Amino acid sequence: MGTATLIIDGKSYELPTFVGSEGERAIDISKLREKTGYITYDPGLGNTGMCKSAITYIDGDAGILRYRGIPIEQFAEHPNFIEVAWLLIFGRLPTKDELARFSERLTQNAPLHEAMRHHFEGFPVNAPPMAVVSAMISTLSCFHYHLFNDDSQFEELAARLISKVRTIAAYAYKRSIGRPYIYPDPRLRYCANLLHMMFSMPYDQYIVDPDIEDALNLVFILHADHEQNCSTTAVRVVGSSRANLFASCAAGVCALWGPLHGGANVEVMEMLEKIHQGGLTPEKYIELAKDKSSPVRLMGFGHRVYKNYDPRAKMLKAACDRVFAKLKRRDPLLDIARKLEELALKDSYFIERKLYPNVDFYSGILFRAIGIPTEMFTVMFAIGRLPGWIAQWKEQHDEANAKIVRPRQIYTGETQHDYVPFEQRRAPSA
Ligand code: ACO
Questions:
Q1: Exposure pattern of 260-292 as b/e (b: 16+ CB <10 Å)?
Q2: Which protein residues touch ligand 1 with a CB less than 6 Å away?
Q3: Which residues contact 151 (CB under 8 A, 6 or more apart)?
């Protein structure tokens, strides 16, 4: 603990400072308004630490990402999404028995209540799948509320959510294509079961390729947590009111949906398709992305935190190469993505602004290779991110002195004036 001196209008104020376990330095301004009458102004909260967290560490300049201290690269060899989920939520690697117990809970909880299955019929066939997923996660609150206020049931609650979101995602997809819902198969593991529910038909079992199953495990692991991003912050903000886990995670899905966050993986594919269909060359697209008079951005590039190559993008790029080699296929969109990356990484615009590929740049191509349709990409991201949201929600829930999130604002509207009756009002001049 140290102190920082803040001088306002010649008057000095001492504010405590502290350092995180990896050396991040912070000034504690929690008493700033009380002491000085000032608040801080930080649109986008890029300089604001909202919480202390022991879950995920990112060094954006060095391109480092660790879950509970373990470098992300170490999960690549035998990727097991459920093991990583347990690690994130409970703070350490599970023993064999703990993992087996958690996996059993997932298996037991995979089916939805039959009443929930009927809910899918109420959605329009072309409803955006993220809307369906967030609505159905909220709906889970109607069926599992008896677990909400009992901390001893937390593992069961987390397992229900992680397991059922996969069934919800598969049913949202089946609804969108007008095909029959497929019940989960208790013999299949997490990712294989998802693929089974998405792609099997009652008369035709989808056979899961173990390499594809590994690739899906890896993508989910790489999406599993990313500290205080937009959707995680949404989960924490909602959870700070003591809203239940399911309601808080439904808010996370809504935040993830936006094109500047999880929705970017869809935008990347649209960008690559547009170039592939001959509308634009990669060179022309890069020029447009640099042109400030055009709204175009190089989707899948840039990040609030990473000012270096996103380590997840690096691993996804390598996974794309492995999967395409195994499938003995080529994807012209992968070639276009590589070309865009090559052009951007030697262009002074991107170099000066430290814009590198982020997780969304290659994830869509990998999802495509796995057979996931574009409209389901952001849903896949949500399934992957769920353990992170749950871990962050729990960390906040367990904190003795957690406060409801309630920021301040700098009011810039009208100062006080009187109400004017209709007959005395004038329309503003054009
Ligand atoms: N293409 C072109 N220019 C870009 C891009 C891009 N992808 N990203 C940033 N820039 C430029 C901005 O125009 C700005 O230029 P300026 O300084 O001349 O005004 C500068 O780089 C800084 O950009 P900001 O928008 O201020 O950076 P911020 O940290 O607020 O935004 C964001 C980060 C939203 C990710 C941004 O880089 C972006 O829009 N990228 C494309 C969308 C995307 O891929 N989103 C996924 C992010 S990862 C995730 O959520 C999982």
A1: ebbbbbbbbbebbeebeeeebebeebbbebbee
A2: 260-262, 264, 289, 297-304, 353, 355, 358-360
A3: none
Indicate the pLDDT class of residue 347, thresholds 50, 70 and 90. Answer: very high
264-370 matches 2-41 in CATH topology: no
Q: Give CATH superfamily name and number for 66-257+377-398.
A: Citrate Synthase, domain 1 (1.10.580.10)
pTM (two decimals): 0.92
Distances from the Cα of 107 to the Cα of 195, 232, 317, 343, angstroms: 15, 26, 31, 46
Tell me how far the alpha carbon of residue 27 lies from the centroid of ligand 1, in angstroms. 27
Q: Domains of the chain: which residue ranges? A: 2-41, 66-257+377-398, 264-370
pLDDT score for 259: 86
CA of residue 44 to ligand 1 center, whole Å:
13
- 392 contacts 225 by C-beta, under 8 angstroms: yes
Distance 332 CA to ligand 1 centre (A): 25
Q: What are the Cα distances from residue 402, in Å, to 50, 84, 228, 344, 397?
A: 11, 26, 16, 43, 7
Homologous superfamily of the 264-370 domain (CATH):
Cytochrome P450-Terp, domain 2 (1.10.230.10)
Task: Give the whole-angstrom CA distance, residue 415 versus residue 39.
Answer: 20
User: What is the fold of 2-41?
Assistant: Rubrerythrin, domain 2 (2.20.28)
| pLDDT band for position 232 (cuts 50, 70, 90) | very high
Query: Which alpha helices (H) appear in 178-209, and where do they start and end?
Result: 190-199
The predicted-structure confidence for 51-108, as pLDDT tens digits, reads as follows 999 999 999 999 999 999 999 999 998 899 999 999 999 999 999 999 999 999 999 9
42 noted as active-site residue: no
The encoded tokens of residue 130 equal 């993220």
